[in-house]
Amino acid sequence: MLCDHCNDRPAAIHLTQIEGNDVTTAHLCEQCAAEKGIQAGTTVTKLPLAGFVASVGQGAAAALPPDADAGSCEFCGATLQDFRDTGRLGCAHCYATFEPHLRELLRRIHGAPHHTGKLYLPATSASPEDPEQHIELLREQLRRAVDAENFEAAAELRDRIKALE
Amino acid sequence: MTLDLSLLPDGGMSWLDASGPNSDIVLSTRVRIARNFQAKAFTVRAKPEDLFEVRERVLGATKESAAFENSAVFNVDEMGRIERQLLHERHLISRELAGLDRQTQVRPGATLLTNGELGLMVNEEDHLRMQSLQSGFDLLKAYRLLERFDTELGGRVPFAFHPEFGYLTACPTNAGTGLRASVLIHLPGLVLTKEIGKVLQGLSQVGLTFRGLYGEGSEVVGNFFQLSNQTTLGKSEEDLLDHLGSMVRQVVEYEAQAREVLQTEAPAVIADKVWRAYGLLRYARSLSFEETMNLLSGVRLGAGLNLIHNVSVYTLNKLLVFSQPAHLADQEGRVLSDPELPVSRASYVRRVLEGDAAHHASNDSAGQ
Questions:
Q1: Is residue A40 a contact partner of residue A77, using CB atoms and an 8 Å limit?
Q2: Residue A131, SS3?
Q3: Which of B2, B71, B148, B209 lies 20 to 30 Å from A8 when distance is taken between CA atoms?
Q4: Is there a contact between B197 and A40 if contact means CB atoms under 8 Å apart?
Q5: What is the interface pTM, i.e. ipTM, of the complex?
Q6: Is the model's pTM score more than 0.90?
């Protein structure tokens, strides 16, 4: 993970700050942190860094051009500006609406944008309106499971796909 | 009790019994996962009727679950402030679900379902926050319970999942696994030997983070730290737990070493420190929250070093929770503020410690 501030050195200090409903996270290298007067250790939580951290957080919350107009989410109506203001997305569909922006943001927050953990296998949607689409979804999950060397999940997915076909 | 938590072991806090691994140093292990409904706006943007529907569907789905056969449901949105704070002090619900912040109110549909080791917060920042609390240091047990329930529930209600980003959450910092594992650990040895700064810095370098007793935004008091994973995406649940687990194991080891150093190099100083803490708790007439936490830390260290036998770790765990404002108000039957509150706290602590000391004394004489 790279430092949010200089984007050059590896981040060594991770700060999460809550103000009202806003959660901002800053990942800084030691040098940038020192320049901002932050020390790792027990005192971190007590420093009045609201302004600084908020600005870093917003930089991350929109790892996107400030004038980026990605429109609004068709499902819930949220815009990127809403996300910048609150730090929270409006609904699951926002992830698809703002996908390119979020991919970059997730990479910055987590160091990697790809989920390699537990796969969701909705038992009840095995016979939805569109079986084709469902198989397609399972294939996509299978591909990722194999990429992630999650062979247990891959085997289960393979069985499900076979059963549907 | 205002709340009917009495049917659950230890009022919904089975971790209090200090039965888990390393429970002299690690108080409890908590694992939570965040999930959201696919076709509902996240809670911050949802209309009240949507939030009520989420509650109904989740409670409906859990009715068939064996895990929640013996459980209690609390409609947090219909509870008074003291009751909500009480649940929060028990670590059963978050500050956000309890609506304790001045700017915010309780969200409509805010609900807790708990069976004592598995809890389900409905309409928190995410539609669902499931958590498992275990005594001592036991990440795998906590996760296994949770994982099984997550799979079961996911088969009954449709979760928001993205093939690339994983489980979707209101805040992108939780996306992917939605998993946050944390270990509540007591580190007086490292604080007294002044090694704590290095240890915490080391943890931040490997992607872990620390917080106070009550999680995000709370200050460290009484040498109690919550260590948890910082990121949730890009690693599997097992890898996240492994990583946190191996680091916590090291911290436990460092703490044990630091305690050994203290005991060999300054035994008289340490003995004096822990007995003074015990003496103050046992006889003081007014105790602030912070002072109580610090003194409990000293006594807990004494119990861990086998210096103090008059009090059990179970009692110390209980005091940690029950000496807090909402619990004291609950015992007194009315809301207390300064200067009554610290007086009531001191009186409660005194009573509990006297009881425990008498109990241990009679056990000792019976054994002789």
A1: no
A2: helix
A3: B209
A4: yes
A5: 0.84
A6: no
